[in-house]
Amino acid sequence: MLLDEFKFYVYLRDKKDLIFKPIVDIIPSWLSPNIITSIRFVLVLPLFLIWYYWATNPYFVWQESTWYFVGFIILLGLFTDYLDGAVARLTDRITVFGIYFDPITDKLFTIPVFLIFIAHWPIVTTSLYFLINLRILLILLGLVRAVLHKKERLSRLLQYGYITVTLIGYIIFAIKFVYDFL
């Protein structure tokens, strides 16, 4: 992966993995990193449905406790995002499936979270819509990269394109976000 060539990135990633080492040591061997990633993938739909049908319904009796549940699902998704990579690296169970499925799942998991922000923080709606479209574009680029992973030159070129699109997209988002407040 292209980011592995940056020493600072590898240093921070390894430090993060050391924090998760005690948790990785107690995880059963059958719980692979791909299963952890799949759990996060499955959490996307309940997160969206619980938020959309219960937490935003003013007539739902347990609306406040539903928000706690939505927050718990988001925190569980963030935790599994860090955990699957740490488990894969510390137990030497890195797979091609995980290399491509994990980033796609990360971006897919953030879309309902951004929709929650859009619904409850309307001043930044256009900025967050842009961010959602950027995430969808990155998912599509990740899928293309997964299909072309055997062709190293194209895969490396797509990695550069992926990073460039991400940087430009976040710069535009930051400018747009500031502009929304002015």
**Number of helical regions:** 6
Oligomer: single chain
Largest sheet: none
CATH class label of the largest domain = Mainly Alpha
Question: How far is it from the N-terminal to the C-terminal residue, by CA?
Answer: 39 Å
CATH superfamily of the largest domain: CDP-alcohol phosphotransferase transmembrane (TM) domain
User: Roughly how many Å is the radius of gyration?
Assistant: 18 Å
Query: Can you tell me the CATH architecture of the largest domain?
Result: Up-down Bundle
Helix coverage percent of residues? over 70%
Mean pLDDT: 81
Tell me how many strands there are: 0
Low-pLDDT residue intervals, each spanning 5 or more residues = none
Domains (count): 2
CATH topology name of the largest domain: Four Helix Bundle (Hemerythrin (Met), subunit A)
Estimate what percentage of residues fall within beta strands: under 5%
